[in-house]
């Protein structure tokens, strides 16, 4: 029985074996890569909840991020990339109807992005 991690790794290997070379050879295909290391290597992928860019969780070395498993759970934390964290931190929060500052970095449920999810984004084009 394949685990979710095993399925993700299998999909990533399939992508690297069959699709990556094609994408590199054809300019019309936009292959995703890590916004921090610019690689499409296998790993634990997370998707920024603000800008939608993809990153390897291990490439983000900021303190206090916790563990990948905290983001991979259905009700887990939402990943915010370093660029968006800085941009949103500089903005002055504005109150909205529910009393929560708009643009605040409050954790909310994460759309499940994790092992294999970044791969599916690469291969579903």
Note the topology.
Blueprint: H1 4-25, E1 45-47, E2 54-56, H2 68-72, H3 82-90, E3 94-95, E4 101-102, H4 117-123
Antiparallel strand pairs: 1-2, 3-4
Helix pairs in contact: 1-4
How would you characterize the overall build of this protein?
This protein has 125 residues and is mainly α. It has one domain: Herpes Virus-1, CATH 3.30.40. Helix content is 34%, strand content 8%. It contains four helices and four strands. The protein has helices at residues 4-25, 68-72, 82-90, 117-123, and strands at residues 45-47, 54-56, 94-95, 101-102. The strands form two sheets. The chain has a two-stranded antiparallel sheet with strand order 1-2. Strands 3-4 form a two-stranded antiparallel ribbon. A hairpin with a 5-residue loop joins strand 3 (94-95) and strand 4 (101-102). Helix 1 (4-25) runs parallel beside helix 4 (117-123). The model is unreliable at 100-125 (pLDDT under 50). One of its GO terms (molecular function) is zinc ion binding.
Shape: globular
Residues in helices, as a percent range: 25-40%
Oligomer status: single chain
Please indicate the percent range of residues in DSSP E strands (runs of 2 or more). Answer: 5-15%
CATH architect. name: 2-Layer Sandwich
CATH topology: Herpes Virus-1
Largest sheet data: 2 strands, antiparallel
In round numbers, the mean pLDDT is 71
Tell me the domain tally: 1
- Highest-level CATH class: Alpha Beta
Pairing-aware structural class of the strands and helices? Answer: mainly alpha
Strand order of the largest sheet: 1-2
Number of strand elements? 4
Q: Report low-confidence residues grouped into runs of 5 or more.
A: 100-125
Number of helices: 4
The Rg value, from CA coordinates, equals: 16 Å
CATH superfamily: Zinc/RING finger domain, C3HC4 (zinc finger)
Elements, N to C (H/E): HEEHHEEH
First and last CA, distance = 27 Å
């Amino acid at each position: 029985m394949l685990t979710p991690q095993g399925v993700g790794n299998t999909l990533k290997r399939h992508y690297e074996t069959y699709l990556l070379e094609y994408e590199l050879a054809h300019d019309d295909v936009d292959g995703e890569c890590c916004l921090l290391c610019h690689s499409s290597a296998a790993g634990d992928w997370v998707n920024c909840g603000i800008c939608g860019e993809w990153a390897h969780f291990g490439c983000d070395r900021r303190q206090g991020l916790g563990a990948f498993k905290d983001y991979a759970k259905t009700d887990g934390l939402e990943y915010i990339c370093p660029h968006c964290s800085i941009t949103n931190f500089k903005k002055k929060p504005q109150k909205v109807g529910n009393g929560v500052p708009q643009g605040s970095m409050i954790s909310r449920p994460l759309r499940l992005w994790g092992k294999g999810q970044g791969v599916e984004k690469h291969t579903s084009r």
